[in-house]
Amino acid sequence: KKAAERRVEAAYDAAVKGYDARVASRTTRPSPAGASDGKYQFVGVVHDGKAAKKSDGVTWYARKKPRGSKWNVRLVHVNRDAVLRDLFLKGKVDVYGKYVNEGLDAAAFAAAETSGEDADGGEKEAPGLKPLIKAHYEVKERSWKTLWNFSPMRFFATPSGSFWRERRIDPGLYTDGTTVYESVYRYRDGKNGMKPVAKLSNFLASPGLGYEEKMRAVERLKGGDEPDVVVEK
Question: Over the range 108-118, which residues count as b (16 or more CB within 10 Å of their CB) and which as e?
Fold first, then answer.
């Protein structure tokens, strides 16, 4: 069997030897005059449908051709997410996030009007009280012209955690429209957490809380207020 394999390999090498020689001579042969004599190189950046106009699908850039370079035109598909991440890790840009509460839909708004109870006064599950939160991100270049995006107000009002410790969330009750949570802080790890306390429907039907407190929570859910805490998944 091994002898047969050696004969097959020898036959293959003999068959492709001539072809390899012709390819090698073609690649080492000097290119004809004018084939790559341009003084500039052109690079087209493909926007992948993210351009403002359809006619701006490709943006062209030109540079002087380096010595020894053999190409004139190239098209490049840019991974914008990877570029932004690399710029952020190198400290070239800062990313700012803003979360907008767009309120409730029609069904959830009607459920919020009843504060989680039906007309007969019985307890009713309120599954549609979770507001719609949308994130808007903005990338700003960090440079001396913008004082490296330094803001004294942000430095003193919303400082970040020290190294790996997270800044503690204000103690109290929070809700996402479905469940009521109590903020907790694990000092050993420096991490925040949310401990589920009760369903929102039970919270609204609880006799231990005043009517104003309940309505304040419902108004914040349906009023479009800026969220206090956002957990991205």
Answer: beebbeebbee
